[in-house]
Amino acid sequence: MPESKTTLPVSDHVEAEGHLIDSHIMEQIFDTVVEFQGRFEVEHFHIGRTNSEPSRLRLRIEAPSEPMLEKMMTQLLGLGCSPVDKSDAELAPVERECCAPEDFYSTTNHRTLVRLKGAWLEVGSQRMDAMIVVKEGRAFCRRLRDLRAGDQVVVGMKGIRVIPEAKERDRLSFAFMSNGISSERQVETAVRQTAALVRHTVEQGQKVIVVAGPVVVHTGGVPFLAQLIRSGFVHALLTGNALGVHDMEAALLGTSLGIRLSDGRQQEHGHRNHMRAINAIYHAGGIRQAVESGVLTRGIMYECVRAGVPYILAGSLRDDGPLPETITDMNQAQDAYAEHLSGAGLVLCLGSMLHSIAVGNMLPSWVKIVCVDINPAVATKVSDRGTGQAVGVITDVGLFLELLARALTVPKP
Ligand SMILES: NC(=O)c1ccc[n+]([C@@H]2O[C@H](COP(=O)([O-])OP(=O)(O)OC[C@H]3O[C@@H](n4cnc5c(N)ncnc54)[C@H](O)[C@@H]3O)[C@@H](O)[C@H]2O)c1
Question: What domain range is 134 assigned to?
């Protein structure tokens, strides 16, 4: 049946600018309108003639109802469309701590601008699922729990512009795994490109952050991560209590969760070794003290202390012990992670579903993530946040670290 030509009851105009075609944003815009039972009419489209010139699009959109138009607009904003009207962003005050006005604008992880007194202002501390607070001529993201009475929060959808990341064309782009996830056969290529990204990030004066789970220890990755830390390629380690415990159990007792690292066999009474390791660290007075007093002489935590690389041990419900320094207040742990992620250029997520996804949620879309996990679902979940930000490498993390350490560090004669 031919589509009816009658117009739908509500309409608006939106504009978008950027690499709309090759980043596949335009088709997403069209799909979104249709998904919300709407219609679009392209009123203006200018294709960028060079690889650096942006394309420009102006659409008239129609929807079956106001609520539907609003939902459609929310999605379109995230794709870089902004309403054509030139009004400022609307603000409403927070009346009670942690209580946002009903129609607060919820942020994406993309670079965002708000219009205030006719001028566009970039939003600071960009992250997803936050509110935008405007204070003393500045705009910044704030989590719900950080809202205070009197804060002015952006509401509605006017005067907001979101700039999705464009697909990169340079040699350090994620083109090597542009399909998102690389297969086992491509691991060597992925390692080579990750090594190039690490070098580039360091040369740019940005931080390389490692987010890791205890499987790094179980798969024999310790000497290689230790080597990377020693060689100055890691600027902070964000992890849980378990990596610290298993790393130090391996350093102190030669086992990881009671399994001998030398031959992969269960050590007799080895099940108590992780508790013996925690106990030894308490006896020493803490992790740093264990290194300084010569109790702890190798491993990931040892190298962090020696190299002055900050580490955060975030607690979880699964933890035994936990080790001293484990942050068991989750809000504090998130804050500590966010502090170290600020200024990051590259984040390597190594074998931890919990910590990798948590970190993915905190980062703005222009910080690169390489997520190494044996389970494609985890890599997909972490990668699923905007064009070109994250890639997954599906492989054993111990193997990946060995290859990466080899690619980045020149063996000593
Ligand atoms: N794992 C433990 O033994 C243990 C024990 C006590 C507490 N905890 C705490 O629980 C929380 C979650 O722990 P987690 O991060 O270990 O679990 P997680 O389930 O969040 O992540 C483990 C990830 O490792 C991946 N994986 C498994 N084998 C792999 C391999 N060979 N190579 C690459 N990836 C591989 C899995 O697919 C999974 O995504 C953390 O805070 C941790 O400190 C863990």
Answer: 86-165
